[in-house]
Amino acid sequence: MSGRLADVIIRYRWLLLAIGIITVFTCSYGVNQLGFTTDYQVFFDKHNEQLNAYEKMQNTYDKSDNVLIAIHPKSNDVFQSETLNAIQWLTHEAWQTPYSTRVDSVTNFQHTEAEDDDLLVIDLVAEELTLDQEERDKIKQIALSEPLLVNRIVSQDGRVTAVNITIKLPGKNLDENSEVANFAYDLKARFLEKFPQHDVYITGVVMLNQAFQVASQKDMTSIMPLMFIIILIALVFTLRSISMTVATLIMIIASIATAMGMTGWLGIKITPPSSTAPTIIMTMAVADAVHILVTYLQQLNLGSNKVSAMRESIRINLQPVFLTSLTTIVGFLSMNFSDVPPFHDLGNIVALGVSAAFIFSITILPALAIMFTFKPKKYVQVQNNQFERVADFVINQRKPLLWGLSLFTLITVAFLPKNELNDEWVQYFDKSIQFRNDTDFVLENLTGLYVLEVSLESGQEGGVSEPDFLQKAEEFASMAKLLPEVLHVSTFTDTMNRLNKNMHNDAQEFYRLPQNRELAAQYLLLYEMSLPFGLDLNNQINVKKSATRIVITTRNLSTNETIILENKLSQWLNRNAADYEFAIASPALMFAHIGERNTLSMLVGASAALVIISFILMIALRSIKMGIISLVPNIAPAFIAFGIWGILVSQVGMGLAMVAGMTLGIVVDNTVHFLSKYTRAQKEKAMSTPEAIHYAFANVGKALVTTTIVLVLGFTVMSFSAFSQNADMGILTALTISIALIIDFLLLPALLLTYQKVSARLDVPVQLASDTPN
Predict the structure, then answer these.
(1) Which pTM was predicted?
(2) Contacts with 558 (C-beta within 8 Å, 6 or more apart), sequence order
(3) Is pLDDT above 60 for 112?
(4) Side-chain half-sphere of 556: how many Cα atoms within 13 Å?
(5) According to the model, what pLDDT value does residue 495 have?
(6) Residue 143 and residue 107: Cα distance in Å, rounded?
(7) Where in the chain is the domain with CATH 3.30.70?
(8) Helix, strand, coil tally for the chain in percent (to 5)
(9) At how many degrees (to 10) do helices 242-265 and 364-372 cross?
(10) What distance in Å separates the CA atoms of residue 231 and residue 222, rounded to the nearest whole number?
(11) For the segment 662-702, what is each residue's pLDDT rounded down to a tens digit?
């Protein structure tokens, strides 16, 4: 079968080359349709429970997407005249931010005071103030005693303050977020030019979205060129031929262009995880080319002409290259089991690229290799002495290797439980991304970016004025404030306490909730009527005044800590406020739950991939027993790698859940190529098991080492990604692939020798498959 296909491929190579070129240009035109989305919500599908709860809350109250601009005066006192003037200027200018709906700062905080029987609602820092020492002392005293400001808008020590801009993106085009972020950076530049004695830090949800884009663009402009150079060096070193290297690079570029073009035609948007697809495709495509070209060059060295050498190379490699491509595709398609849509996209894009690489490796590559070969008999003879020595070592040390590697595997697997699912989504970015540095400063000096929003429903219109409801909301907020992980609690009850105090001549003993519903409703109405446009209470109570939102700001929390906090809050509400419905939602909570669910879903995906790949190998090897044997070196590398990760790191992020299924398809490649040569030696050359192992090492050893080096370097390059999910995935994948080569070179031959010996003892013929020559 392989021989007949090889004849067809060689006979019609120029037609296949032309068809391949047309296919590449047709598909690659779809690159013009590619778009990049920066919204963090792309990490969640439309059925995600936490996303739906968060969107419902966003539709009930004002949006909480924001840009937070933190100001740190070099005087370390935000209540100096210059800084207060600067904050006033920034507050005024911030209203010009595209899609802004609200601006909050210490200067425009709606301070309330009683004047006779009237309630005065005024900016804390009015424009007509002279800001003399007495006025500044009064402003400072009010600000640092106001629960709605401290640890949210101004730091407890008065060293840092912030202007918070609430944003409501219409969602009509992809560059809305960038438009807001660019305006914020421009506003920062104008502020520093006008008020140079200050430092400015920008964070918030909008800037988080922008950081995703910045990190992805940084990766694409740095990692891909570096990977291209590494592949170029590896190919030149392995093939010892500039012309073969050029042919391979053309095939790789064609594969990437086809995959990314198809992505555009399919309407798939590029996200930070899927932005690594070209790098992965580049590394995967090399493997196909190296196996075909190494055999081609070996045949030339043996005296074959160009056409005969390529025909033989295709005959020998067609089945294993097809199988490795198929198993790799299955591995990456298993990522569709993920609960994270960008990982679906990554798996699907790479699967498209691997498919294209296989097709082009038997159409475009052979034609180019034959075309570019001018002096076929002057290639350097491949030396296999080192691989012969490895074969001798494995054969002679079969038992120690079998038991030693088995014991090592068991020991490392014992550390698997040490891996703990933990993500901190601010730390998705390294410190080369400005968002990370700015956010770290804000977290350390002002407030947190991690929030949990709690919507408490009274069950009746106007119920937020009900004393019992207000009391429960205040008790809940007081409980939350005492939790060690909580930095700030923003609650409507603080406003009601202050209004009650104001309406009793600012007597401190009346800083408590009104005890009469009608009185509370009157206070609320009077207050709302006095508020300026854009600073209403829709961020705290809903339109029907039946529910209130309590915003809990926390320190940096990991996935597990966030879920634990959610459970604490839920348990308190279930015990103490059973009469009221509640919902807890936030981006932090969404990321916490998606990490947990994603791990479970990817275990299912990896299991499904394992079953499919096992079925493929059993059919290809025509033996259930051999199929089972082949699974050992395919499953062991991931277990060992995760065990080592448990020893050295122990923190598993959302991206690492992909590695088991993804690498399963990759590490099978070495096994398939080794077994293909092994079975060919036994079937075609009637070799014994030791001789067949020698033959396999001699004929595929160099190609396996080369492809492994390229794959390891390719995924290691990803470790330089500014996006930690990609970086961690690259490191663990590179580790898994490295281990896979060791297992295939040392454990697989030992298993084959053991199986052969047992079969011979039982007088059971060993059934091994190979390509049948034509």
Answers:
(1) 0.81
(2) 422, 423, 424
(3) yes
(4) 15
(5) 92
(6) 9
(7) 447-585
(8) 65, 10, 25
(9) 150
(10) 15
(11) 788 788 888 888 888 888 888 878 888 888 898 888 888 88
**Distance between CA atoms of residues 440 and 203, nearest Å:** 9
Tens digit of pLDDT for each residue in 27-66?
Answer: 999 998 888 877 778 888 888 888 898 889 888 887 778 9
The backbone region for 173, taken as left when phi is positive above 0, alpha when psi lies in -120 to 50, beta otherwise, is beta
* H or E, element range at 167: strand 161-167
Which token pair is 264?
């555009």
Question: Could you tell me which of 78, 75, 109 has the C-alpha nearest to residue 91?
Answer: 109
The class of domain 447-585 in CATH terms is: alpha beta
- Give helix 364-372 / helix 277-301 axis angle, nearest 10°: 50
Task: Give the E-state strand segments of 177-233 in sequence order.
Answer: 198-203
Q: How many CB atoms lie within 10 A of CB 302?
A: 11
298 pLDDT above the threshold of 50: yes
First to last CA, the chain: 7
Say if CB 388 and CB 691 are below 8 A apart: no
pLDDT value for 140: 94
pLDDT digits (tens, 9 = 90+) for 624-640: 777 777 778 888 898 99
**CATH 1.20.1640.10 residue spans of the chain:** 2-33+210-414+591-761
Q: 175-179, 248-252, 765-769: which range is least confident on average?
A: 765-769
What residue type is 158 in one-letter code? Answer: G
* Cβ contact 203:68 at 8 Å: yes
Rounded Cα distance between 211 and 194, Å, is 26
Q: What is the DSSP letter of 268?
A: P
DSSP category for residue 45:
-
Using CA atoms, how far apart are residues 176 and 77, in angstroms rounded to an integer? 35
| Contacts of residue 229, Cβ cutoff 8 Å, sequence gap at least 6 | none
What is the Cα–Cα distance from 121 to 110, expressed in whole angstroms? 6
Specify the pLDDT at position 758.
53
pLDDT value, residue 384: 54
C-alpha closest to that of 274 among 358, 350, 166: 350
Reply yes or no on whether the pLDDT at 289 is more than 80.
Answer: yes
| Tokens 């209540």 belong to residue | 79
Residues 146, 44 contacting (CB under 8 angstroms): no
pLDDT surpasses 90 at 461: yes
Are the C-beta atoms of residues 496 and 551 closer than 8 Å to each other?
no
pLDDT of residue 770: 38
Stated as kind and residue range, the H or E segment containing 101 is strand 100-104
Q: Which residue's structure tokens are 């429960």?
A: 472
Distance of CA 220 to the CA centre of its chain: 15
**Which tokens go with 666?**
């990759």
**Res. 769: pLDDT tops 60:** no
pLDDT at 19 over 90: yes
pLDDT at 382: 44
Q: Which residues pair with 547 in a beta bridge?
A: 457
* Closest C-alpha among 495, 459, 460, 453 to residue 474: 495
Res 340 pLDDT > 80: yes
- Does the domain at residues 2-33+210-414+591-761 carry the CATH identifier 1.20.1640.10? yes
pLDDT at residue number 757:
60
Contact 202, 69 (CB under 8 A): yes
Looking at this protein, which amino acid is placed at residue 375? K
Asked if residues 161 and 155 have their Cβ atoms less than 8 Å apart, the reply is: yes
